[in-house]
Amino acid sequence: MKKYETMIILNINLEEEARKAALEGLLDVLKTNGAEKIEVNEWGSREFAYEIEKQTRGYYVVLTYETNNMLLNKEFERICGINQNVVRHMTIAL
């Protein structure tokens, strides 16, 4: 299995419950598409190096997971891209 890491920056203006729900929704995409050994590392609120979408802060989350499903990464990137709560995201192979 290949190991991947995804950093997600969530909108800082989300309430804690909404942020948890948004993160759970993203984790469900990974779980239902066969990702294993999912680790969630919440870095919390951090300042951006530059303004993104008129925001200067974001809530950072790093997800580490393993999968053999190559289409999972494309689908996960697509869902992150259309999710209004996700400011930025990036996936790399480890």
Strand order of the largest sheet: 2-3-1-4
Per CATH, the architecture is 2-Layer Sandwich
Superfamily (CATH H level) name: Ribosomal protein S6/Translation elongation factor EF1B
Strand-residue proportion: over 45%
Order of helices and strands: EHEEHE
Give the overall pLDDT as a whole number. 92
**What is the rounded Rg?**
13 Å
* CATH fold-level assignment: Alpha-Beta Plaits
What's the CATH class, please? Answer: Alpha Beta
Overall geometric form: globular
Q: Assign the structural class, choosing from mainly alpha, mainly beta, alpha/beta, alpha+beta, or little secondary structure.
A: alpha+beta
| Distance between the amino and carboxyl termini | 11 Å
**Largest sheet: number of strands, sense, barrel closure:** 4 strands, antiparallel
Low-confidence stretches: none
Total domain modules: 1
Tell me the helix content: 25-40%
Number of strands: 4
Number of helices: 2
